[in-house]
Amino acid sequence: MTKVEEAIGMLRSLPPERGEGVAALLLKLAEDPGSFDYTPEEMERLDRSEAAAARGDFATDDQVRALWAKHGL
Predict the structure, then answer these.
(1) How many domains does the chain have?
(2) Is the pTM of this model over 0.90?
(3) Which residues contact 7 (CB under 8 A, 6 or more apart)?
(4) What is the rounded distance in angstroms from the CA atom of residue 39 to the CA atom of residue 10?
(5) What string of DSSP letters covers 6-65?
(6) Distance (Å, rounded) from C-alpha 57 to C-alpha 51?
(7) Which of 10, 39, 43, 62, by CA, is between 20 and 30 Å from 1?
């Protein structure tokens, strides 16, 4: 299975309201990869994430396994 097929399968399994948002994002990125603009809230989250990474503040292996299990991975 290719990544495209895997992504389409995952998209089809999402609730419709979430799937529409993800599909719109994928279409926008496919049409023009450089056109995506982050909202101020998204930029704030990215800044917080980058600051946490710079501090070495990462999830533990147990936290990652719990997240994967929660999503059936």
Answers:
(1) 1
(2) no
(3) 26
(4) 25
(5) HHHHHHHHS-HHHHHHHHHHHHHHHH-GGG----HHHHHHHHHHHHHHHHT----HHHHH
(6) 9
(7) 62
